[in-house]
Amino acid sequence: MKPRILLIYTGGTIGMMANPSTGELQSLDFDYIHQQIPEIARLDLEVIPISIAQPIDSSHMQPAHWIELVELIAQHEATVDGFVILHGTDTMAYTASALSFMIQGLAKPIVLTGSQLPVGILRSDGKENLLAALEIAGKKGSTGKPLLQEVAVFFQSKLYRGNRVSKISAHQFDAFDSPNYPLLGIAGVEIEIHTNELLEHPKTNTTYFKQLDARVGLIKLYPGINLSAYQSVFNPEVHRAVVIEAFGSGNTPNHEAFAKVLSAYVEQGGILVTISQCTSGSIQPGKYASGHLLAELGAWNGTDLTTEAAMTKLMWYLGTSTNPHQAEFCRVIAGESA
Ligand code: ASP
To answer: The domain at 216-330 falls in which architecture?
Structure first.
């Protein structure tokens, strides 16, 4: 029997066409993609297309859309062998990360892909990306079970762990990177899957989490930052947690006014999580004297999490935990950190 793949369309450039009067790119329905890529029918797969209620440019993505995707996947889990999600590139890394925390123990692939150019454009990257993503989602291992059993992103010949990628280019076809984790596979003449890099196959049943707490803030440090201008960010009623993109291995400015805002937030019950604004490497709290402040304030160590993974892991964790604490947050859920 051919592997059955649910192809979920959420919007994004891949399915857009220029509005004839304004020239602006607008989302179309999934039938348009099917017309543009008739080769889908030639794959040795049964592809079942479906769309979210309202396809969007992914810059409009909201946690509610992630919940909608989780519901669609839960509804079809029993009847398909894998999932491919067509998604805009702008927030694809956030959605991939969110799904990796919201769907745990799924022994099937969820592969997100999209394109930098709409499929109707001659040099579009959409066709290659979609056909390869479908083929990867349909791959079976020697036991007959799906080879890939995790959330991944496929883009420009490369297969990445979903919660390790970031979008790094607004104009190159090679738009993603995963500096802290090796590729899961590569599509050359053959599609090679690097099985030693894949997540271990889950031993538990699938759990779907549909509760997210979006009261999570994000601050990127820069020389000269005036934290008192961010009072409403550091208000625990607005944000239960704030991710700090610190310098290097977790370093911060050392002036008193800076520390004052953060310590007042922590005293009122706010949670700080430190990640690095460098694209690769990890937080090492004691490495420099300037790296002590956040650790002394009890900031949770975000190690080598991407911004996308840190934000979505917090939304998931705060949405599910009754008594949030660092040790539990730092437990690796889906290969998101070392
Ligand atoms: N703005 C588009 C989106 O994310 C860009 C893309 O798909 O590449 O939906």
So the answer is: 3-Layer(aba) Sandwich (3.40)
> What does the CA dihedral 106, 59, 90, 117 come to, rounded to 10 degrees?
110
Tell me which residue has its CA closest to atom 7 in ligand 1: 88
Lowest mean pLDDT among 200-209, 283-292, 293-302: 283-292
The residue type found at 20 is P
* 4-208 under CATH 3.40.50.10090, yes or no: no
Active site residue 79: no
Q: Which of 10, 13, 307, 312 is catalytic?
A: 13
pTM of the model: 0.96
> Ligand 1 centre from 12 Cα, in Å?
4
- Quote the ligand 1 centre to 15 CA distance (angstroms): 10
Cα 130 to ligand 1 centre (Å): 15
Q: Where are the domains of the chain?
A: 4-208, 216-330
HEC per residue, 102-169: HEECCCCCEEEECCCCCCCCCCCCHHHHHHHHHHHHCCECCCCCECCCCEEEEECCEEEEHHHCEECC
